[in-house]
Amino acid sequence: MSVSAWGAIGYGYKSPLIFVHGTGKKEALKQVDYLSQVLKPHIRPILEAFVAITHLLRPCVEPLFMEDSNPAHGHKSQANCCQRFRTLYGIILMPHPGSSPDMNPIEKCWRRIKQAIHRRVHQPTTVEEMEAAVREEWEAIPQDWINQLVLGQEHWVNVLLKRHGWSTPN
């Protein structure tokens, strides 16, 4: 059973959880699914809410949007529908290695959710039960914990830089 969920986090912010349903082979997510189910209906209000919080904390900093390396996000080409949408609305993607989960704090949230569901006595057996369990665990993630993830990103950036022999920023 496969369930795909999308959520956004930031310091002082956690978005509503969105379940995305793929239209590709074996219900795989395609770029048009991500565009029509996440970006178009949800991303602008989410970014506006996040910008409001970010500007309270650091008025001179533009928020960056980070996505993982899921092909449905459409990072490979400037001509794909998701990239055209991001460009149209001035959504700036944070460059990071897509295969480095430590560089994306949301990955720690997904791991926390998976571990919590795995520990449940009653395991979800239907898509509906799985979506309900994922939503329940998403809502149970404390904002203080998310804030600590965000604050800890500087550490992970420095670890990555050191690992590759690059100098750390001043």
UniProtKB/TrEMBL annotation:
MF (Gene Ontology): nucleic acid binding
Domain of life: Eukaryota
Pfam family of the protein (one): DDE_3
Domain Tc1-like transposase DDE: 13-120
Protein name: Tc1-like transposase DDE domain-containing protein
Native species: Hyaloscypha hepaticicola
